[in-house]
From TrEMBL:
PROSITE patterns: TRANSALDOLASE_1, TRANSALDOLASE_2. One of its GO terms (biological process) is ketone catabolic process. Its main location: cytoplasm. This is Fructose 6-phosphate aldolase. The keyword Cytoplasm applies. It comes from Enterobacillus tribolii. GO terms for molecular function: fructose 6-phosphate aldolase activity. It comes from the Bacteria.
Length: 220
């Protein structure tokens, strides 16, 4: 499976790329806006923080398909192998078709329904991003949508991958992986929560204390 960070925090990417088997970094317009760094500065910094490997994702901003294609080219002029995120709206679907014709890889984003996601894959998207927490937050079932989307892709668009997004808790992450999701993107705080439960720190502290008590030194 592929694990991504969903962030524009370059320092967090540098720190976590050392720890996690990261496949890359995803961003969205809100995430980029929160850091106030223009994409032509931010994206190369993220690439460097990843250690010059790993996939980067950034999103188009234009409302019309032809302009989305122009946005995609601007983003790919900054990072040549970047995957372009396109919202799965009517114009977005048209853009994904045009980008497919030009051989530009895409991710269908803002996916709140399995059939919506399938349409982006049929249009040519390489990845489809269902929004797990946002679905849960509006009374839906994010994991069920991931499940249904995976089944639809398997049946009708086997070349496309689910890249599940919008996570707020480790439980959502685990349920998504148990559902067989092949790639996920996590905000740094959720990724860190996977390995920083209070019980884990307490267990490690107890090992250290017992060792110190017995041998009078901290190490081997
Ligand atoms: C990914 O495509 C989305 O932009 C992102 O994961 C949404 O996350 P949020 O619901 O935490 O904003």
């Amino acid at each position: 499976m592929e694990l991504y960070l969903d962030t524009a925090d370059v320092a967090a990417v540098k720190r976590l790329a050392r720890i996690f088997p990261l496949a890359g970094v995803t961003t969205n317009p809100s995430i980029v806006a929160s850091g106030k760094k223009p994409v032509d500065i931010l994206l190369p910094e993220l690439r460097e923080a990843l250690g010059s490997k790993g996939r980067l994702f950034a999103q188009v901003m234009a409302p019309q398909a032809e302009q989305m294609v122009e946005d995609a080219k601007k983003l790919r002029a900054i990072i040549s192998d970047l995957v372009v995120k396109v919202p799965v709206t009517a114009e977005g679907l048209a853009a994904i078709k045009l980008l497919k014709e030009e051989g530009i890889p895409t991710l269908g984003t803002a996916v709140y329904g399995a059939s919506q996601g399938l349409l982006s894959a049929l249009a040519g998207a390489d990845y489809v991003a269902p929004y797990v927490n946002r679905l849960d937050a509006q009374g839906g079932d994010g994991i069920q949508t991931v499940n249904e989307l995976q089944q639809l892709l398997k049946l009708h668009a086997p070349g496309a991958k689910v890249l599940a997004a919008s996570f707020k808790t480790p439980r959502q992450v685990q349920d998504c992986l148990l559902a067989g999701c092949e790639s996920i993107t996590l905000p740094p705080d959720v990724a860190e929560q996977l390995i920083t439960a209070p019980a884990v720190s307490a267990a490690v502290a107890k090992f250290e204390q017992d060792w110190q008590n017995a041998f009078g030194v901290a190490g081997l």
